[in-house]
Structure formats: structure tokens, C-alpha cells
Amino acid sequence: MFHLLKRYYFQGPSKMAYLQILLKPRSRAACSFVPLQCVLTGLPKSQLFRHTSPGLTKAQGFHSSCCNWKKKKPPEPEPRELDLLRYDMKSLKDAPKPALYLSFAGLIPFVSVPLLMAIQETSYPELVFAQTAYGASILSFLGGIRWGFALPEGSPAKPDWINLANSIVPSLLAWIALLCKDYIFHAGIMVIMGLGIALHYDLALLPTYPSWFKALRALVTIVAVCSLVATLFIVNICPEKHLGHATNKVED
Q: Residue 245's CB: how many other CB atoms inside 10 A?
């Protein structure tokens, strides 16, 4: 039986040549795609190459390379230009003396109101409204600074929509705070939000002011916001008393 199969399948030189092609080491990758029936059944040469061409294409298109397992170092972050503690606070000593004195003097209405109410352990609505109105006026002043800085020729700040439109936002918040005079707590929150937004504009969104001015703005804003927070805290925990009633009792 074996001799019959050998005589039937391997008779003729052409089929032996096909077998030699399959057994060559250089064509093993390509011949692995060739069906064995093509050789054993004695397919014509054209059909044999038609079956082997996809395998040869895959073998030729296959590419292997060594994987680079070495991790690349992440790029070092650039130094922050707006890092207030590292850059701007050091420039506070370069601030002009009039700017320092006037800015610190402008904190007296903020600090004096909660200090006086804390000493007397009494909440005075008139003083709270006076502090809120003063904060609203400061907000309008901060918005006007941006206009005065952007309008002159040669200024690093351009009089575009970003500079001029954002300068109006603190004034609008100040106006809303004054409209809430019957709701002191809401008015104080509005002023605090306005001071925070104005500081964000000057330090991050519109960073064209001198370094000493940005440091001064940050320091003054922090003190003003803390004073307003202290006032709202005293309003919630201390009994309320009007200044008119206290004056009448002193006269009696």
C-alpha cells in the first residue's frame, strides 16, 4: 500500500521539485501558508504560486525590532512665572513708599470694624454696612486701575476685550453688593468674591503688572478678605445692636 501511494503522489520530477522547495530553510516562513493539498494533489504551478503569494507577502511584510524598554525621562517643568511666594513677594521691598503707605492705610476701615465689634462682643449693622460699602468702592477702584494701565500708548497691556471687559466685572459685583444692603451677609460674600476675582485677574489672567504691585495686591487682598470673613463671623455669633440705641443710652 505504501509503495502505491509513493508511486502515485511522488511520480514525476515536477512534484519532487515542489517538495524540495517546501523543504528549503529559506522558504519555510512562506511555505507554512501553503496548503499541503496543493503539493499532494499535484496542483499546476500557476495555482501553487497563487496559493503561496499571500504567504510570501506576509513573510516579506513582517518586521521585528527590539523593544526599547528604557523609560524616557519626563521633561523638566518650566519655572512658574506667576509663583507669588518665590518671585513676587521678594519684590515687595522695591515698591514705592507712597504705594506702600497708602495701601496699608486703606486697610484701616477693613480691620477696625471687626476689631471694634470683637472687643464689645456686639454686632453693629451700621458698621458692617460701612465696611461692605468701602469694600465695594475698592472693587470699583481695582477695575479702574486696569483701564488706566491698558489705555496709554506703549503699555504692555493692550486695550482689548479681555483687559477692558474683565475690568468691569469687579464694579458689577460691587454694585450688586450695594443693592443687597438689607442682606448684610450676602453683600459681604459678594464683596469677598469680587476681591478674589480681581486678584485672580491681576495675578494670573492679566499678568502685566510690576512684580512689587502684584505682591502688594496679594497682601492687601488677603488682609481685606480675612477682615470681611471675621465680620461675618461676628454677625452670626454676637447679638445685634444699633448705634442709635447705644448713643441714646449714653445721653440718658
A: 9
> 242 and 201, same structural domain?
yes
The whole-angstrom separation of Cα 139 and Cα 85 is: 24
- Whether the predicted pLDDT of 48 surpasses 60: no
Same domain assignment for residues 49 and 89: no
Going by pLDDT thresholds of 50, 70 and 90, the confidence category of residue 39 is very low
Amino acid letter for position 2: F
pLDDT over 90 at 225, yes or no:
yes
Domain harbouring 129, CATH code: 1.20.140
Three-class HEC string of the chain: CHHHHHHHHCCCHHHHHHHHHHHCHHHHHHHCCCCHHHHHCCCCHHHHHHHHHHHHHHHHHCCCCCCCCCCCCCCCCCCCCCCHHHHHHHHHHHCCHHHHHHHHHCCHHHHHHHHHHHHHCCECHHHHHHHHHHHHHHHHHHHHHHHHHHCCCCCCCCCCHHHHHHHHHHHHHHHHHHHCCCCHHHHHHHHHHHHHHHHHHHHHHCCCCCHHHHHHHHHHHHHHHHHHHHHHHHHHHCCECCHHHHHHHHHC
User: How high does pLDDT run on average in the chain?
Assistant: 75
- For 141-185, what is each residue's pLDDT tens digit? 998 888 888 888 888 888 888 888 888 999 999 999 999 888 889
Given a cut of 50, whether residue 36 has pLDDT beyond it is: no
Domain membership of residue 22 as a residue range: 7-55
97 lies in the same domain as 43: no
